[in-house]
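In response to the reviewer comment on reproducibility (Comment 2.3), we provide here a single inverse folding case reported in full, input and output, so that an independent group could reproduce the run without further information from us. The structure tokens appear first.
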């Protein structure tokens, strides 16, 4: 029987993500986001006419434009959260290896980063 591994994503939610050939672990969500954003950036840079048509909400392909807009809005909150969580995880591992006191846990999932200069 084949085992399916879930990947922790956000706010305690797990997703089933594919593993690359020869790897037992699924892709990390940051790597998945990188691939998606890299592909969109490549289209925008090398196929600007196709990109402009794809993001035009006034045309008949507004479903594609809405999907791209939704994806990019999700990236604005998901990526900083994933990076913050991963940096805290790496910091805890580093302190553990050096024999130092355990690092405080990072911000809880769902934590929102405030813009620089914010008073809150």
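Designed residues, in position order:
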């Amino acid at each position: 029987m084949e085992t399916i591994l879930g990947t922790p994503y956000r706010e305690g939610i797990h997703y089933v993500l594919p593993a690359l050939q020869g790897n037992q672990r699924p892709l990390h969500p940051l790597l998945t986001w990188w691939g998606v954003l890299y592909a969109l950036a490549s289209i925008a840079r090398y196929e600007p006419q196709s990109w402009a048509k794809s993001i035009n909400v006034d045309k008949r392909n507004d479903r594609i434009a809405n999907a791209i807009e939704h994806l990019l809005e999700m990236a604005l909150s998901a990526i900083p959260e994933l990076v913050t969580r991963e940096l805290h995880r790496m910091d805890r591992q580093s302190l553990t290896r050096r024999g130092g006191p355990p690092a405080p846990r990072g911000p809880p999932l769902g934590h929102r980063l405030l813009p620089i200069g914010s008073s809150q």
